[in-house]
């Protein structure tokens, strides 16, 4: 405990949210296993205890893509299954309460970008994740909404999963199959390459599902909040944020890009206890 | 209430897997196609299976179960030579016709089924191609509306699959644009068709596929040609005709058009 700004404050050594890493690993391995089992199932060699669902069935964005077709005709877009609608509903409900935790904790594409990003951290140290000029970055952050609108439009008008041909998530777990379009492989490659320079580039600039979930940041029940009375204003929370959100300059994080990773909180990087918190209450 | 990472991790697991368990119990969690297309929800055909919901994972047998079109007819329409057409997956058509220059796949089957059964199917803004063999079967039914015929005129292509379903190499892909619709039927490629023998299992679609003119068939049976999926034998017994007599006459016509 130290005396800071006239208050007794307990200081922490910076840590990371290790449990998030475990959850990320779990979902990455689970989806990879399901994708491999799906391939095995096509040759009649599936592992019985494991789901052999297609990747489309376990992708919540499929539920968003098919929504118009489902509401207007009761049908699902080709290749999409009911499970996609269920997953979309669950992850949106989670986001309404806790923000886009699907992006920060579950999505395997986000996870692999973080893994590659560790290389960037090693190579570039403090410069990592700060290569894109702020003005350009601010504009590019809205590109994912444009992509979302385009995907919804082309899916509704064609009745097919047009985005599949560009989807790096589909490519990540199907690169061995002939179903994957070269464009999707290319986009996955570019995404992973950019991850060496920018943390989660796909999530920041292009992910249409991140765009959907990101909107919940504006009204979510639990938010990242900063207690100004105990804040040292050292900027650690902002530096640590993978999405470059200036946490140290706001009282409540309402940024549409927050992924609820909790890396900025007092449980992790913030050195002052109970200063950057994940709460549904008000803070001073 | 403040929340830390560990309770949040538990909440994520409970929410995701609890939600999946709950929806499974309610029957909403489906990761595979039920092989039963959704039904029309309104209009004259409400309650009937909707061809627009045919999936690539369906086999011709699944399509037959929902729409009562024989797998053999589908195989003939799409030049599938699999000895068991009922097990042929619709999505394999795309691979079969990959080199033809035209996208012939699940949408083509949807269109064929809808036109064949006179069910509503929205083709607005869509370019759905059918092989000539499929169009010939549809035209032989004489049930198409003028606008449907016009659509077929625009999107019928004279193509052959680059590879057969048994992995044999077929003749080099051919693709001609349209007039296929008006031209005379050509001999199709299925193994059943290649026999050119009228048997109990022979369907009217086989006869037209072999090149026997519809008018000649109608002359022999003394009535308009029924659904191409119907076997000659079933038609004969249903109409009190002597199958052997009809068979002999039809075989004579088949022999005339049979390749030497």
List keywords for this structure.
heterodimer; A: 284 residues; mainly alpha; Alpha-Beta Plaits; 2 domains; two-stranded antiparallel sheet; two-stranded antiparallel ribbon; 13 helices; 4 strands; globular; B: 260 residues; two-stranded parallel ribbon; 12 helices; 44% helix; elongated
The geometry of chain A reads as globular
Mean pLDDT across the residues of chain A is 91
Q: How would you sum up the major sheet of chain B?
A: 2 strands, parallel
User: Which chain pair has the greatest contact?
Assistant: A-B, 44 and 31 residues
Q: Could you say how many structural domains of chain B there are in total?
A: 2
- The total count of strands of chain A amounts to 4
Helicity level of chain A: 40-55%
N-to-C series of helices and strands of chain B: HHHHHEHHEHHHHH
* Share of β-strand residues of chain A: under 5%
Order of H and E elements of chain A: EEHHHHHHHHHHHHEHE
Relative helix content of chain B: 40-55%
Stretches of chain B where pLDDT is under 50 for at least 5 consecutive residues are 165-194
Note the gap between the termini of chain A. Answer: 21 Å
List segments of chain A where confidence is low: pLDDT < 50 over at least 5 consecutive residues: none
Mean pLDDT across all residues of chain B, rounded?
81
- Using only C-alpha atoms, the radius of gyration of chain B works out to 23 Å
For the biggest sheet of chain A, the summary is: 2 strands, antiparallel
Strand order, main sheet of chain B: write it out.
Answer: 1-2
- Give me the secondary-structure category of chain A: mainly alpha
Domains of chain A, number: 2
């Amino acid at each position: 405990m130290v005396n800071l700004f006239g208050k007794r404050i307990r200081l922490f050594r910076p840590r990371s949210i290790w449990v998030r890493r475990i959850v990320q690993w779990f979902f990455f391995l689970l989806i990879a296993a399901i994708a491999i089992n799906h391939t095995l199932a096509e040759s009649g060699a599936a592992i019985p205890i494991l789901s052999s669902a297609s990747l489309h069935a376990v992708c919540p964005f499929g539920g968003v893509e098919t929504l118009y077709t489902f509401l207007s005709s009761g049908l699902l877009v080709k290749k999409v299954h009911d499970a996609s609608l269920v997953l979309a509903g669950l992850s949106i409900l989670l986001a309404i309460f806790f923000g886009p935790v699907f992006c920060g904790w579950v999505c395997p594409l986000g996870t692999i970008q973080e893994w590659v990003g560790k290389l960037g951290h090693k190579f570039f140290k403090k410069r990592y994740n700060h290569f894109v000029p702020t003005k350009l970055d601010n504009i590019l952050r809205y590109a994912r909404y444009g992509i979302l609108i385009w995907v919804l439009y082309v899916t509704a008008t064609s009745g097919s999963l047009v985005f599949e041909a560009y989807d790096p998530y589909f490519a990540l777990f199907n690169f061995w199959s002939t179903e994957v379009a070269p464009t999707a492989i290319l986009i996955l490659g570019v995404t992973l390459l950019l991850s060496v320079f920018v943390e989660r580039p796909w999530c920041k600039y292009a992910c249409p599902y991140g765009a959907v979930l990101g909107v919940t940041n504006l009204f979510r029940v639990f938010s990242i909040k900063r207690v100004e009375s105990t804040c040292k204003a050292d900027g650690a929370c902002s530096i640590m944020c993978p999405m470059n959100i200036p946490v140290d300059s706001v009282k409540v994080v309402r940024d549409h890009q927050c992924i609820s990773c909790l890396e900025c909180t007092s449980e992790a990087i913030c050195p002052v206890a109970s200063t950057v918190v994940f709460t549904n209450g008000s803070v001073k | 209430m403040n929340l830390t990472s560990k309770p949040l991790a538990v909440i994520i697991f409970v929410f995701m897997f609890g939600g999946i368990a709950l929806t499974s119990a309610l029957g909403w969690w489906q990761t595979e196609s039920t092989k039963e297309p959704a039904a029309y929800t309104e209009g004259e055909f409400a309650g009937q299976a909707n061809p627009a919901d045919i999936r690539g994972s369906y086999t011709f047998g699944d399509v037959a179960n929902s729409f009562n079109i024989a797998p053999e007819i589908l195989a003939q329409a799409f030049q599938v030579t699999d000895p068991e057409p009922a097990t042929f997956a619709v999505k394999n058509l795309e691979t079969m016709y990959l080199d033809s220059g035209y996208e012939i796949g699940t949408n083509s089957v949807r269109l064929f089924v809808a036109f064949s059964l006179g069910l509503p199917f929205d083709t607005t803004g869509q370019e759905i191609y059918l092989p000539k063999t499929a169009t010939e079967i549809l035209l032989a039914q004489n049930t198409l509306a003028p606008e449907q015929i016009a659509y077929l005129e625009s999107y019928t292509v004279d193509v052959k699959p680059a590879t057969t379903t048994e992995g044999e190499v077929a003749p080099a892909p051919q693709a001609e644009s349209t007039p296929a619709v008006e031209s005379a039927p050509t001999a199709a490629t299925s193994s059943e068709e290649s026999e050119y023998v009228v048997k109990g299992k022979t369907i009217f679609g086989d006869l037209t596929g072999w090149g026997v003119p519809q008018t000649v068939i109608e002359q022999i049976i003394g009535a308009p040609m029924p659904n191409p999926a119907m076997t000659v034998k079933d038609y004969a017994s249903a109409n009190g005709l002597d199958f052997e007599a009809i068979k002999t006459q039809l075989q004579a016509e088949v022999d005339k058009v049979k390749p030497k």
